[in-house]
């Protein structure tokens, strides 16, 4: 065989090999692995660097085509033995899944798409969030999708609520945690993005209160919720970078004071702390409407309602108006919650009670002039 023949043979063999690989492509379905820094993951709420969630309601949203299976690979900073997450597929109701460090298959109820060449690829939105005010750490390492699935950009709603509060906003005692609480329900009803920075037991004043080392006037500005103190692997807080909230909150709702009152913080001191807090919020949220809830109080079996800090909230709103800030509004919730709406043993709203509060606030907001989005942005 001459040199040129050898070369020709080599070329022919190479072509044959190429043809063989074309004829028999590697059909083994390979899952699509998404790294936790993929720009198509829409993160919301408060995440630390690991990255891991703090605060009830923090989570992420995915928009994908040809999706039918989803696995979350979670890291060692995930709550042990598990954290409860809410999952919603295509805006259906949130259901609960308990996840742990390692691989977690999330049931989506979507059927397999075999013809991935079809023109109209099915698109799906999956929304996931930590539900608990404690045991709420989800340390996301990677996301695994089925072969053929592809992440698409998620466009957030133009409306974005930030709720600030205590147990009455965080969904304490509810089976699905914050996902059944009035702030979350209100956000859903308006087809809005929503973040709930609420900590059961916490005062607004920066005092130790029912196991919380800090009040909301401090911890609101931190990445971590007050659970950090009980967390061996992350026993510290870090400043929250508000630039990470995309879009920035368009509406702020504050319902706080119960734990200040139970620590005998008197009205004058509470008003002063609240005004300092609002002034600091205004360095981040220059013009956004701030809704100041009066307490609905603690309803009793005999029909009476235990009130606290009465009159303080009107003073706060008046003081802001006097400063020229007209974008602070009093939401008078007197009478919103009766004994039938609470768990009898702890007087916190029950599941229908939270829905009732959400309905009343939605009506209040509509009267005020805010309309729900007509459709979800993604
Ligand atoms: C998740 O765990 C909680 C508490 O550990 C339990 O009460 C709940 O039933 C579990 N949920 C599911 C869907 O397994
Ligand atoms: C896709 O194929 C699998 C098995 O190959 C089958 O079980 C499934 O029903 C098919 N799905 C659809 C939507 O045809
Ligand atoms: C966190 O640190 C504080 C002291 O700064 C300590 O009292 C507390 O026990 C620590 N928590 C854990 C879970 O280690």
TrEMBL record:
Keywords, alphabetical? Hydrolase, Signal
Q: Which Pfam families match?
A: Lipase_GDSL_2 (PF13472)
Specify the SGNH hydrolase-type esterase domain's residue ranges. 163-355
Q: Per its UniProt record, what InterPro entries does this chain match?
A: PCW_deacetylase/CE, SGNH_hydro, SGNH_hydro_sf
**Molecular functions (GO terms):** hydrolase activity
Q: Which N-terminal stretch is annotated as signal sequence?
A: 1-23
What PANTHER family is this protein classified in?
A: ESTERASE, SGNH HYDROLASE-TYPE (PTHR37834:SF2), GDSL-LIKE LIPASE/ACYLHYDROLASE DOMAIN PROTEIN (AFU_ORTHOLOGUE AFUA_2G00620) (PTHR37834)
Protein name per its UniProtKB record: SGNH hydrolase-type esterase domain-containing protein
- The source organism is Cristinia sonorae
């Amino acid at each position: 065989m001459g040199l040129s023949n050898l070369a020709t043979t080599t070329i022919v063999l190479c072509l044959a090999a190429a043809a063989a690989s074309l004829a028999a492509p590697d059909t083994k379905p390979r899952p699509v692995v998404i790294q936790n820094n993929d720009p198509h993951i829409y993160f919301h709420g408060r995440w630390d660097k690991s990255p891991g969630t703090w605060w009830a309601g923090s989570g992420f949203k995915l928009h994908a085509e040809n999706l039918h299976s989803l696995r979350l690979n979670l890291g060692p900073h995930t709550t042990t033995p598990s954290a409860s997450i809410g999952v919603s597929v295509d805006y259906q109701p949130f259901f609960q899944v308990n996840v742990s460090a390692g691989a977690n298959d999330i049931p989506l109820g979507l059927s397999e798409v075999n013809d991935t060449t079809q023109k109209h690829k099915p698109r799906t939105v999956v929304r996931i969030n930590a539900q608990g005010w404690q045991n709420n750490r989800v340390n996301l390492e990677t996301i695994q999708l089925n072969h053929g699935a592809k992440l698409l950009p998620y466009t957030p709603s133009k409306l974005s609520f930030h709720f600030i509060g205590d147990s009455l906003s965080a969904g304490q005692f509810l089976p699905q945690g914050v996902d059944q609480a009035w702030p979350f329900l209100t956000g859903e009803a308006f087809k809005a993005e929503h973040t709930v920075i609420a900590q059961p037991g916490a005062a607004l004043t920066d005092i130790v209160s029912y196991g919380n080392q800090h009040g909301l006037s401090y911890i609101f500005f931190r990445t971590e919720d007050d659970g950090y103190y009980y967390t061996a692997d992350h026993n510290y807080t870090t400043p929250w970078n508000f630039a990470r909230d995309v879009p920035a909150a368009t509406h702020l709702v504050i319902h706080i004071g119960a734990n200040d009152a139970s620590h005998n913080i008197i009205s004058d001191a509470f008003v002063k702390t609240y005004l300092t807090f609002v002034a600091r919020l205004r360095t981040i949220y220059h013009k956004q409407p701030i809704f100041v809830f009066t307490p609905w109080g603690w309803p009793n079996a005999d029909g009476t309602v235990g009130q606290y800090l009465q009159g303080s909230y009107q003073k706060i709103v008046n003081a802001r108006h006097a400063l020229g800030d007209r974008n602070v509004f009093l939401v008078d919730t007197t009478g919103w919650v009766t004994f039938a709406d609470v768990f009898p043993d702890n007087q916190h709203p029950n599941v229908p009670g939270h829905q009732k509060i959400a309905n009343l606030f939605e009506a209040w907001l509509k009267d005020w002039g805010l309309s729900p989005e007509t459709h979800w942005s993604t």
